[in-house]
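Recall from the previous chapter that SMILES is a line notation for molecules. Here it describes adenosine-5'-triphosphate.
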Amino acid sequence: MDKPVKIRVENLTFSYHQTPVFEHINLEFDAHAITAIIGPSGRGKSTFLSLLNRLWESQPFARMEGKVWILLDGQWVDIYGKTLSKPDLRRKVGMVFQTPNPLPMSIYKNMAFPLKLTGVADKSLIEEKITAALRQAFLWDEVKDRLHDSAFSLSGGQQQRLCIARALVSQPEILLLDEPTSSLDAGAASVIEDLLVRLKERCTLIVVSHYLDQVSRIADTALKLEARGFSPV
Ligand SMILES: Nc1ncnc2c1ncn2[C@@H]1O[C@H](COP(=O)(O)OP(=O)(O)OP(=O)(O)O)[C@@H](O)[C@H]1O
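With both inputs in hand, we obtain:
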């Protein structure tokens, strides 16, 4: 039986300053799986992730053609269409960057920030969601007694798990991760790899990675981005 698909990319063409990065890309991503994207530096891996959550749109010399569909509540939704607002899209499609980027505030406030943006005001509900997301990110035991300390007091690996937890607090269905372990030591990276595998129960994950050993440990599918486009590894 075919695996359920979560993301469909249709005839996608993208350029910066009229220089194409991708042309006529067609791809599908399996639900509840980790798809790794590998490929040479500068080929467009980060750019591709930015097309899946509309993060590229602030750049005036960028142009995109084609469609990106995601399956939400049994319906295919065009992420560039009118049915899904950009804030709603960003809640459904979370993003984690290469370098941990906690906000300059406490661990608790970092976690509460996305909830407050969406108007969640009930303090006990906020606490419940924060606790759940920190547990899902394997961080709760390490921070439960210091939630009001600065997020910058955490180690690099803990900061990256905080960023993953902050993405999870909005209950995303898709998580995009751009080289999430490349700034971490082997031990911290290994914790994050275990965490990503566990998160498949909740999300569909796309992970850009430069490490083939990491890809073979965690990915269900791997795609290589080369000059001709994506090909299975
Ligand atoms: N804002 C921008 N304006 C113009 N060109 C850009 C911009 N961002 C990226 N590019 C170009 O687009 C191409 C793809 O860049 P991108 O960062 O997506 O590659 P990458 O595969 O993620 O690289 P790396 O593995 O080094 O992170 C590169 O040639 C890059 O120079």
